[in-house]
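Run log, item B.
One chain of 118 residues. Sequence copied directly from the ordering sheet:
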Amino acid sequence: MQRVTSGHTMMFPPLLGTVQNCANVCEHMVPMMLGMTDVQARRNQIRLLIDCAKICHTLSSYLASLSPMAQGTAALCARICEMCGNECARFPDQHSQMCAQVCLHCAQECWAYASTAG
């Protein structure tokens, strides 16, 4: 992914696409989960999906603007994505399982970025 600014090409960190995808997946999961027959059992999952989408959007914005806040935010994003992924993994439906994979992959990439950026 590249951005052109003032005639210069600037490379975005590869993590940007991962966090954008995670945010989108989590956002799309919320209305699906709200329509499930076991919605009461999924209250924590729904809260974490919302939190995960929010922090991924925040990190995406920081990465896109090359903010010095990106590294610290990536560590927080990794923790929230991990929690969301683990919670989604508890439910056997196909959407939750797919979301768990997306979130846990995002968490791994965020941890790697947080530990190497700087």
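Observations after the first pass:
- The chain has one domain: 16-28+40-116.
- The first helix runs from residue 15 to 34.
Flagged for discussion on Thursday.
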